Amino acid sequence: MVAMRREFRDRVVLAFAVVTLVSLTPLTGDAAPADPKAEVGATLQAQAEAWNRGDIPAFVASYEHSGDTIYTGGGEVVQGWDAILQRYTSHYPGPEARGTLSLKLSEVTMLGPDAALTWGHWFLQRKEPVGGVFTLVLRRGPQGWRIIHDHTSVSKAKP
């Protein structure tokens, strides 16, 4: 009987210790979970920075490296990461064509914990400035947030 009481007491003490450790973890663990909307914004900011450095492969790295990734704009639909890289490389071969990219993120709507819809405005400052609107669908995966669908349009009005 005494052995059973000790065993019961030991289990209660162990359970109390586990509950105490679990409840204290947020106080001693990592910072609060990241804000997905802020992470999406940071992904697009990194994309613009890569563009402005002239690093088109790093710019396209913000797209999911998949044959299913879609870019549509200017009346064309481009499917697949490699094809999207080729499109950007051929359309923007040098600094004069690329200009300086500015993105203004207008809204991020979470579609789930790992999916987001966002839209905003883009502007290229160059000899002949151009700008427009973009709508992106992003998915969070092992490499972070990546664009899986990009629809970009050019505005007829002066940017």
CATH topology name: Nuclear Transport Factor 2, Chain: A
First-last Cα distance? 84 Å
Let me know the largest β-sheet. Answer: 6 strands, mixed
The Cα radius of gyration reads 24 Å
Mean pLDDT: 84
How many structural domains are formed by the residues? 1
Number of helices: 5
The poorly predicted ranges are 8-32
Task: Count the E strands.
Answer: 6
- Percent of residues in helices: 40-55%
Strand content: 25-35%
Secondary-structure arrangement, i.e. CATH architecture = Roll
Secondary-structure element string: HHHEEHHEEEE
Tell me the strand order in the biggest sheet: 2-1-6-5-4-3
Which features would summarize this protein structure in a list?
alpha+beta; Nuclear Transport Factor 2, Chain: A; six-stranded mixed beta sheet; 41% helix
Model description:
By secondary structure, the protein is of the alpha+beta class. It has a single domain (36-154), classed as Nuclear Transport Factor 2, Chain: A, CATH 3.10.450. Helix content is 41%, strand content 35%. The chain is built from five helices and six strands. It has helices spanning 2-28, 36-53, 56-60, 81-91, 95-98; strands at residues 70-73, 76-79, 100-112, 115-125, 130-141, 144-154. A six-stranded mixed β-sheet has the order 2-1-6-5-4-3, with helices on one face. The termini are far apart. The relative contact order is 0.15. The model is unreliable at 8-32 (pLDDT under 50).
